[in-house]
């Protein structure tokens, strides 16, 4: 079972959008796929048609069995989901004295190995217990970055967190890559920043995906309608870019390099 955590310590970089794209792509390619929303904001729960008033990842981390918190996917290309709840916001204070607090999620999803091919964990944009749990439970991490002046700083911060997690919690964690999101290749500033980002990734030894996800209104429209991007607008630029990313990630097996 691949467990992909989508993380960045900066807000609004496309973590939730990327989590939803990966899981719905996997479902559309016949993979048994689960999305876990670990962000108290609950955006992934909302756009993937989860019920935010039911048992959530909060209860999962407190010991409720995974079977009781998983909601079956509803609608075309929708994965199963473990929703978030606002109570997650208190996780840092609540778990601070708990033994094994960094491994609560890892332990909770262990029984799912024979049930799912792929689990994707969406995280909040802050360094805390939830992010550490998500990185400890993962086999790999994807770092979405929106190209702006603060992007480089946010990569350094997250790489520092990842290196600590590798040292103390999860030595096998790999960084699949940094992913450029909301990309507008026509803007000169964006192109300049992309070059600097390539340099920074090279220096840090972190792969940068060659696919960048274009800015496109279809993304927001699909989310508003609570549809998969691949169902709502399969020929849109962001959908095609995400399809190309799945080729790089080797998810779904049949990348054809063009519209889904
Ligand atoms: N490729 C895209 N084109 C246009 N809009 C996008 C694209 N990707 C994401 N967005 C929009 O940008 C906003 C932020 O995206 P998203 O919620 O995925 O980021 P996030 O990193 O999860 O944010 P947060 O840190 O608040 O959890 C959303 O309104 C989303 O619809
Ligand atoms: Mg989010």
Provide an overview of this structure.
The chain has 260 residues and is an alpha/beta fold. It has one domain (2-208): 3-Layer(aba) Sandwich (Rossmann fold). Helix content is 42%, strand content 13%. It has twelve helices and six strands. The protein has helices at residues 15-28, 43-47, 57-61, 66-69, 91-95, 104-109, 129-137, 151-168, 188-204, 217-224, 229-232, 237-249, and strands at residues 2-6, 33-37, 80-82, 118-122, 140-146, 174-181. A six-stranded parallel beta sheet has the order 3-2-4-1-5-6, sandwiched between helices. Helix 8 links the parallel strand 5 and strand 6. The protein is globular, with a radius of gyration of 17 Å. The protein starts with a strand and ends in an 11-residue tail after the last helix. Residues 254-260 have low confidence and may be disordered. Adenosine-5'-triphosphate (ATP) binds at residues 11-17, 39, 41, 43, 125, 181-182, 213, 215-216, 219-220, 223, 238.
């Amino acid at each position: 079972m691949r467990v992909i955590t989508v993380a960045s310590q900066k807000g609004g970089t496309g973590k939730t959008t990327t989590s939803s794209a990966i899981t719905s792509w996997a479902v559309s390619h016949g993979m048994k796929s689960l999305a876990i929303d670990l962000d108290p904001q609950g955006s992934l729960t909302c756009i993937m048609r989860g019920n935010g008033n039911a048992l959530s990842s909060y209860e999962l981390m407190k010991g409720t069995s995974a079977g009781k918190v998983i909601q079956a996917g509803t609608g075309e290309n929708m994965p199963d989901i473990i929703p978030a709840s606002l109570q997650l916001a208190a996780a840092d204070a609540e778990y601070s004295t708990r033994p094994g607090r960094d491994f609560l999620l890892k332990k909770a999803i262990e029984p799912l190995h024979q049930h799912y091919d792929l689990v994707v964990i969406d995280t909040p944009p802050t360094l805390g217990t939830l992010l550490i749990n998500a990185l400890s439970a993962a086999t790999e991490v994807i770092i979405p970055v929106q190209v702006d002046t603060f992007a480089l700083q946010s990569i350094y911060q997250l790489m520092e967190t990842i290196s600590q997690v590798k040292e103390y919690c999860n030595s096998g964690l790999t960084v699949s890559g940094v992913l450029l999101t909301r990309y507008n290749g026509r803007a000169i500033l964006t192109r300049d920043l992309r070059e600097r980002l390539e340099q920074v990734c090279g220096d840090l030894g972190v792969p940068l995906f060659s696919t960048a996800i274009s800015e496109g209104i279809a993304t927001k429209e699909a989310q508003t309608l609570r549809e998969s991007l691949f169902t709502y607008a399969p020929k849109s630029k962001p959908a095609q870019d995400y399809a190309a990313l799945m080729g790089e990630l080797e998810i779904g097996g049949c990348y054809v390099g063009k519209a889904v």
